[in-house]
Design a protein that fits this description.
Helix 2 (73-82) crosses helix 5 (195-203) and helix 3 crosses helix 4 (134-142). The chain has two domains: 2-226, HUPs (Rossmann fold); 240-268. 29% of the residues lie in helices and 25% in strands. The protein has helices at 41-57, 73-82, 100-114, 134-142, 195-203, 223-226, 251-264; strands spanning 2-6, 9-10, 21-23, 28-30, 38-39, 61-67, 86-90, 119-123, 146-156, 159-166, 169-176, 179-183, 207-209. Strand 6 (61-67), helix 2 (73-82) and strand 7 (86-90) form a beta-alpha-beta unit. It contains seven helices and 13 strands. A nine-stranded mixed beta sheet has the order 11-10-9-12-8-1-6-7-13, sandwiched between helices.
């Protein structure tokens, strides 16, 4: 069997607020100096789901795919160190400044080219934008069944069984393969690679594909030209507060003074 894990590199969520900057003119996050980007936590959990099935079934190849810049190889190699077999980086200037739709489009074309993919594993959402659309987009573009927010994923007899997290409980759905699943944090923490695995992954070559390597795509369909969602403004919200302490010798006096202030402000 052949599984694909989609992995995204994001700014480190533990970046101190003081180091987080935005270029409001370009609507871009400015990388924090000295703080390396990391693998999106939900994608690490998706990789864990695929690896657990591989350990159970045995004969499974796992390819991890990331769309991004050269630095995204670090996210790919983290999943390789966890136990994935091959890495693929989709890198091209034409892919830059896209949205979740163009991301799903490029990923789906790469999955088509890989061929004979039995299951696609995505995180429930990226831990930076939190949109949760790419997995569904891949499923729609590939015309595959999809289950989202899975806390347990099993494959048996040519079908995928997913226990989904609902607002008021859980439900289990079963889908024929090939299928797409987005995995949630309820599955559990992803494994931490051993030093030897990290060293082995560092030596592995990650295959790179650009726009010219993918069929049915051109510059009008990807990146900024192909995006469906327009980002109007990206900014760090400000929070201003004006606090006044209500004095009084007793609780009743404080309450009376508070009521007087509220009436003065025409709130009461």
């Amino acid at each position: 069997m052949h599984f694909v894990v989609c992995a995204k590199q994001i700014p480190d969520p533990d970046t101190p607020p003081s180091a987080f900057k935005i270029d409001e003119a370009k609507n871009e996050v400015i990388p924090a100096a000295g703080i390396a980007p990391v693998l999106s936590q939900f994608d690490g959990i998706a990789a864990e789901a695929a690896l657990r099935i591989k350990e159970k079934l045995g004969d499974v190849k796992i390819t991890v795919i990331s769309l991004g810049k050269e630095s995204a190889q670090a996210a790919i190699k983290q999943v390789l160190a966890m136990g994935a077999d091959e890495g693929l980086l989709l890198e091209d200037d034409a892919f830059e400044n896209g949205d979740h739709f163009t991301t799903a489009l490029v990923l789906s074309e790469a999955i088509k080219k890989l061929g004979d993919v039995d299951a696609v594993f995505c995180g429930r959402q990226a831990a930076d934008w939190d949109m949760g659309q790419v997995g569904l987009g891949i499923a729609q573009l590939l015309e595959l069944p999809c289950a989202i927010i899975g806390k347990d994923v099993q494959i048996e007899d040519g079908a995928m069984s997913v226990q989904r997290v609902l607002l008021d409980g859980f439900e289990t759905v079963k889908m024929p393969l090939p299928a797409v699943v987005t995995v949630s944090n309820e599955l559990g923490e992803p494994r931490y690679p051993k030093l030897q695995q990290i060293m082995q992954a560092a030596k592995k070559t990650v295959t790179k594909w650009g726009l010219d390597d993918l069929d049915n795509l051109d510059t009008s369909k990807v990146g900024e030209s192909g995006r469906k969602l327009k980002l109007e403004k990206l900014f760090i919200p400000t929070s201003d507060s004006d606090v006044e302490i209500i004095d009084g010798e007793t609780a009743k006096e404080q309450a009376d003074n508070l009521v007087a202030k509220l009436k003065e402000a025409k709130i009461l």
